[in-house]
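Re: alpha-D-glucopyranose structure - here you go.
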Amino acid sequence: MTRILFATSEAVPLIKTGGLADVSGSLPAALRDLGEDVRIILPAYPAALVGAGHLRHLTSLQVMGEHVSLLEGRMPDTGVTVWLVDAPALFEREGGPYVDEHGQDWPDNAERFTLFCRVVVEIAMGRANLSWRPDILHGNDWQTGLAIALAHLESQRPATIFSIHNLAYQGYFSEENFRALQLPEALWSPASMEYYGQWVMIKGGLAHADRLLTVSPSYAQEITTAAFGNGMDGLLRHRQDRLSGILNGIDTQIWDPNHDRLIPASYSQDNMLGKSINKSALQRHFDLPEIDVPVFGLVSRLVEQKGIDLVLAALPDHIHAPIQLVMLGSGNKQYEQACVELVHRYPHQVGVTIGYDEVLAHLIEAGSDFFLMPSRFEPCGLNQLYSLRYGTPPIVHKTGGLADTVTHCWPQTLEDGSATGFVFEHPTATGLSWAMGEALRCMARKDCLQRLRQNGMRQDVSWKNSAQTYRQVYQQAMQDKAIA
Ligand code: ADP
Ligand code: GLC
């Protein structure tokens, strides 16, 4: 049994801004089910304090002049142990985990995540008065990069893993911040966290971890190129022998069309009747005519990564045909506004909800005929996996995890049972428009859509295989550390 300290800044169902939360909720549970001893460690945001059940005070620490309590709770759905780093002055505030209610970064983010990382390291080094010490410190994304870097300054440290969920978010701060937080001088170097005079949190993980992971094999390749590397491709090429990609799985209990309490009618591969009931409910929800026309769905953060502008640009090619489009998302104000304008223009064909809505996300997965995910880049992506499971063939750009999880519907792949959706090569409106046309042609043909749905629903999108691969990487990291 390996002891794993899983450090993350969000985890479902306590706090979520994106897929990192889904993974932090479900991967530790999958590892626990394989017999590993996993503890999640998370800042004690108000929602986490409320959601993590009955809390037990474990220990107190004095870190950076703050009195910090470590509280132990349980993840509500899975029972996995979660440790909350309670520093009220830094984490107990309304707003998001990284931004205030106006969407502005918290001005003290450097301090907040430095404190979090320092506490993680105290626990990892057995200096927190606990009877437990990890064999593995597993950090996720920039918020935990400093913990990896600090751990590597210690002699009796655990082996370290750093997972990149999205290289576009790096945590840039100033040299002034670095100095004010009195961090070790050794970390202020281009070989460590310094980058052209800036302090970059993610570099702590990228430069130092025993093993680097990302969330799909294709993205692991892509980030070693200038086009996808966000300035870190040189470093990642240098560390390529330590870098690999493991596909995310999904929580197959939360996302199961046969037992989903959030949708009006359940359904399965053997009985798809419920899917058309959900389609009607979806059309009703958006005040669209309840007619038998192809419905395209989208659930997304509305940011450049996700290719929302491609949807807006490709739509005129198809909107004169009898189709409907439903969208749920929030983010960039311009995209939000452009989506809302579509509803004014095509009130009988387009429905849009701006905001975050878990229940509606399930209804869109269940009630749509096709799911749009034209991301410019996508480290893994979860929504296309939910779509496969819900018999809603995804339409995706051939990138990252989308390329690794969706197989285009060609005559040959339909024949051999591997086709699961529609994949276009270039992130352009023309590419997306072509793929939407292919989807419409498939729907017009006898059996094509049914076969695609069945193929998708047959895929194993659980954590079963991936969690095993994580265990192998943990073993490798422990060996690497022993040799180093
Ligand atoms: P990313 O993490 O880049 O946003 P993923 O596909 O990995 O992309 O994960 C996104 C997660 O957030 C999914 O669980 C998706 O259903 C959810 N999500 C995104 N936007 C919304 C929204 N507006 N309402 C409800 N859920 C959303
Ligand atoms: C990031 C990525 C997304 C991935 C998720 C979980 O938010 O954008 O592709 O699925 O992390 O790993």
